[in-house]
Amino acid sequence: MDNLFRKTWVEVDLGAIHDNVVAFRRHLHDHQQLMVVVKADGYGHGAEQVADQALQAGANWLGVALLEEALALRQAGFSAPILVLGFIDAEHMSVARQHNISVMINDLDHFHTVYAQLDDQGQSPLHVHIKVDTGMGRLGMRDKGEFEQLCQDYMNLQKDDPHFSTRLHWEGMYTHLATADEADLAFLTEQQDHLSEYIQLLHQHGVNVPFAHMSNSAGIVRRLNDPQTNIVRLGISTYGLAPSPYMKANLLPFTLKPAFSLHSRLVHVKKISSGDSVSYGQTYKAHEETWIGTLAIGYADGLSRNLSNKAQALIEGKRVNLVGRICMDLTMIKLDQPYPRGTKVTLIGQQNELEVSMDEMANHLNTINYEIPCMISSRVPRIYKHFSPKC
Ligand SMILES: *Cc1c(COP(=O)(O)O)cnc(C)c1O
């Protein structure tokens, strides 16, 4: 950290990532491979560092949302299987193929457009995972007739195109769960039943697809008994966060270790008098002599202005309030006493026994914990606490 001029940083504890992945590996059914989802720069933690740690801890696959994210991982030297979960235009599939990146196929039309532009120049085939929409209503086929047509077309191409196997390989099929983090299991069960029907159709049409997957972190935490799927996609809980407050309160099979914490240091400390105000719009006024500390972090760093006069932080193991409006680069806190400039303040994370959790901050913002680390902008450097195995 000595090379930072400005003392505001995120600490990413790679040991926590390691422990979470190891715990989930043990928790999985034997036949299941583990895909760790590192989209959006590893949910704001750093895709490469998280991917590296997760693979060392036993992950088999990496999942991302964008072709760009997959390419960045390949360029960083990752050779593990990578699946792009998001939509890629047919014209860009050759890039994925060239870098041995598996892709999602969204529907029958997408399949044919993609197939039509795959040449047969002796490269390795494009690996595709067909997406079916069993209730999420976002991507994939909803229509079983369309899916059957795809199965038939696939089998015909396999029969008729002598270069078939150098062009395309149907590697997987998958769906995404909409309510796996909730108490009520009814919709989840419906989605599972739909997936079973799709898998039946594969068998009926004689299509042999090596992989099927469905579970996100919530499905994994629940340890869904799904012998028909053999990959699971672990996102949020890789990072030590629960998929929902309900799951956090009721369903976690082991303690998750949050990897992300956000810190800054006091750059200025002063005493204000009763009646004095702090920051734009005078939304905070002191009722007595009050110590105010200023931190060099603001909404340009992703500390949402909607946290003004709501959020709390930790200093010397004590909780303090953010006071006045959060500015672009600066934020004020109310102190119980003067602390020296440079004193560390934790905005997300633990000090001693106390914690300001991601969930607490999400709650102030009426959002979910997922959004918080994604929001902390790239202006805030990520400092890695490396994992050292205990011998
Ligand atoms: C982001 C994502 C995941 C991971 O979900 P979590 O809830 O973070 O575990 C899994 N599958 C798909 C398709 C996704 O987009």
Molecular structure report:
- The protein is α/β, with parallel strands linked by helices and 391 residues long.
- Helix content is 30%, strand content 24%.
- The chain has an 8-stranded parallel sheet. A 6-stranded antiparallel β-barrel has the order 10-13-16-15-14-17.
- Helix 6 links the parallel strand 5 and strand 6.
- Helix 1 crosses helix 3.
- The chain is elongated, with a radius of gyration of 24 Å.
- The model has no long low-confidence stretch (mean pLDDT 96).
- Bound molecules: pyridoxal-5'-phosphate.
- Pyridoxal-5'-phosphate (PLP) binds next to helix 10 and strand 9.
Q: How much of the polypeptide forms β-strand, as a percent range?
A: 15-25%
What is the mean predicted local confidence, pLDDT?
Answer: 96
- The percentage helix is 25-40%
Small-molecule binders here are: pyridoxal-5'-phosphate
Distance between the amino and carboxyl termini: 27 Å
Strand order of the largest sheet: 8-7-6-5-4-3-2-9
Which class best fits the helix and strand makeup?
alpha/beta
Extract low-pLDDT stretches: none
* Basic shape: elongated
C-alpha Rg (nearest Å): 24 Å
How many beta strands in the DSSP annotation?
Answer: 19
The profile of the biggest β sheet is: 8 strands, parallel
- Separate helix tally: 13
How does the SSE layout of this entry go?
Layout: E1 8-13, H1 14-27, E2 33-37, H2 39-43, H3 47-56, E3 61-64, H4 67-75, E4 82-84, H5 93-98, E5 102-105, H6 108-116, E6 126-131, H7 144-160, H8 164-167, E7 168-174, H9 186-204, E8 211-213, H10 217-221, E9 231-234, H11 245-250, E10 260-272, E11 277-278, E12 284-285, E13 290-295, E14 312-315, E15 318-323, E16 331-335, E17 344-351, E18 354-356, H12 358-364, H13 371-375, E19 382-385
Parallel strand pairs: 1-19, 2-3, 2-9, 3-4, 4-5, 5-6, 6-7, 7-8
Antiparallel strand pairs: 1-10, 10-13, 10-17, 11-12, 13-16, 14-15, 14-17, 15-16, 17-18
Helix pairs in contact: 1-3
This protein binds pyridoxal-5'-phosphate.
